[in-house]
Amino acid sequence: MMKWFFAVACISSLAACSNSPPKSESDKYQERRYHQKHDSAPESIPELKELSDAVPKYEPKSRGGNRSQYTVRGKTYRVMDHAKGFTEVGHASWYGKKFHGHKTSNGEIYDMYAMSAAHKNLPIPTYVKVTRIDNGKQVIVRVNDRGPFHQGRVIDLSYAAAHKLDMLKSGTSKVKLEAIVVPPPWEQEPLFEAITPVSTSLKVEAQTAETLPIAASPAMSPTNTEPDLYVQVTATQDSTKAARLVDQLALLFETDARTINEQQIHKVQLGPFKTEDDANKLIEILKQGEFSSAFKVYAQ
Length: 300
Known about the structure:
It contains 6 helices and 12 strands. It is an alpha+beta fold. It has a 6-stranded mixed β-barrel. It has a 4-stranded antiparallel beta sheet with strand order 10-11-9-12, covered by helices on one side. A hairpin with a 2-residue loop joins strand 1 and strand 2. Helix 4 packs antiparallel against helix 6. The longest helix has 22 residues.
């Protein structure tokens, strides 16, 4: 009878194991990638400079971490298209030393002293204001990772962010999340002020050129063979987006603009400019925003 009892027990155990969902390669990788088995706090507390809020700014979605959906531990999560108007209430947790120095979901390196966070569904990156409900303390973090994948938790905060909310000892706290969405540079009013000296310079030089006699203007000379100088801002397959950008950028920088269509690719270009210096000034401004790949183009 004892032999049969142990046989039945073993069969029951095997059946229970067979009903458990198999671990994915991603789950297996996560188990072996970290040096520590359990998370812990560092020996030193964050310095004052490390407790400064993340400063929201416009950032395009990162290449990593933004698949429309992904699966962890057999559960599928969907990534939001945008964070505009997003709010959420739930419990926050924090992660520290175990994950410090390892890659986040978008390929950045996790720094437990930075104001960052992990969220299951928000686009990466997204800036979020986190308010601890019971004490009113707040922090602004930048979401660059995925998680937490524990039941009932809505956000995983960095060690520094959790320290600022005074939730290190409790481990979790009820919070309210509010996404902070910054519009792209060409839709931001302050950008007009930032480019005033450059745009004014371009406009003055254009007006000066218009007052010159026709014979003295190299651009109008029939013997002039010098190519025109443009700044290519971006290229897209979306003709509607290209047309909208041309209008917005021409107005913003007070200069001419055009699109060049080649094999269903719409190239957005500003110009022509009279000097390399004018083009370089514009490129310097463009690189402060989304258009970090802007470059000069010469064309007849």
